[in-house]
Amino acid sequence: MLSARDNELITRVGSGTPIGDLLRLYWIPFLFSWEVTADGNPERVRLLGEDLIAFRDTAGTVGLIQNNCPHRGASLFFGRNEEAGLRCVYHGWKFDVAGRCVDMPNEPAESDFRTKVSARVYPCLERAGVVWVYMGPQNPPPPLPGLEWLDLPEDHLVASKRVQDTNWVQAMEGDVDQSHLSFTHSSLRPAEDPSDDPRIAQIRKLDKHPRFEVVRTRYGTCIGAGRKAPDDQRYWRITQHLMPFHTMTGPYGKEPLRNWRAWVPIDDTTCVVIGVTFQPRRPLTVDERTRVRTPTWSWTIAPEHRAPPTSRAFGRWRSSLGAHNDFGIDRRVQRTETFSGIPEFWAQDAAPQVGMGPIFDRTTERLGTSDLAIIAVRRRLLESARALQDGGVVPGEIFDPACYAVRSDALLLGADESWFEATTERRKAIAGVNPDCA
Ligand code: FES
Ligand SMILES: [Fe+2]
What we know:
Bound molecules: FE2/S2 (inorganic) cluster, fe (ii) ion
Mean pLDDT: 95
Distance between the termini: 33 Å
Strand content: 15-25%
Oligomer: single chain
Order of helices and strands: HHEEEEEEEEEEEEHHEEEEEEHHHHEH
């Protein structure tokens, strides 16, 4: 459980809050490059409780500017994106991606008022088809984290997003918690285990209380969940939590597809999950691309369950499954086919999490031994937020992008082997290398 004070501290993301100020020290992924085109339509964005407008200017640079025009507050969403800037439709003031007011047509030509006005903008960078923003005070901003997929060609990866109507920590905790796999995502037909391997399905079925171990690292927390396996072995799944909101859960099988997700706060009660599934060694095959989009395998919204797109912030990334229709639960399927009866993998997580309410009151929780990783990740976030608030301490990992070049893992080891030592090399992201997993 958390105290009421810590629950407030970890969940409130506005500017001036301890965790909000901490989050603003890190680069934040939020947009796909294809979502904004040169001189094309502006996009509404909302991050950390701030309403913003993204646009790509004539030269191809992405800008992220305050929603309210600095003149009298009209929404720049309605602006004209033309000739290297976004022009407000109310009185024609125009701003470039650096926030400079480059035209003020309703003031006399001889006035220098234009040079005294600027808009709040945040610097953006694009890598591997994803746009990142830095909303913090460091000038220049720190480097991007050295995640391995950022250096891959775009045909090696599939990226998607989805909006969830809960606080971001509540959503992220699902990835940190390996214990729910034996339940939420399990099939009543063992052949349909997400591992696609009857051996692993059997292990998961026989040992439903994995032994959890956590190791504090430079970048965050490395989490091992070990289950008893036949022949005096142990099946370890290794999850990474990278500060502040990145997760990598263990992959499956030979030459596995790897995954990364960021749990980005839209505001206190909504988050957007942005994720990439990738193959480090080669382009994805057609078959792999298809598999990533199937409801039983993937964390992305399957095409048949996408909600019609809207122009609200992240309005392209909502599902027709939600609290209003109980995430499509089918009680017959729950009795006979799957543990949850919920049709899509991501919705099997979202249904219990949204059911907690937008911000769960963690003072009422009863945490057990299987919640060790949740406790460790919360502690790291709270410690960093307090150190920043009390002493102005900026976390070291922000200036050490190489420490983010890590991987998750899944493997069988001898019962007495140390999972952390045995995977020292396998957890390093090495270009062109992709060890098989169990
Ligand atoms: S409100 Fe934007 S130009 Fe007047
Ligand atoms: Fe899950």
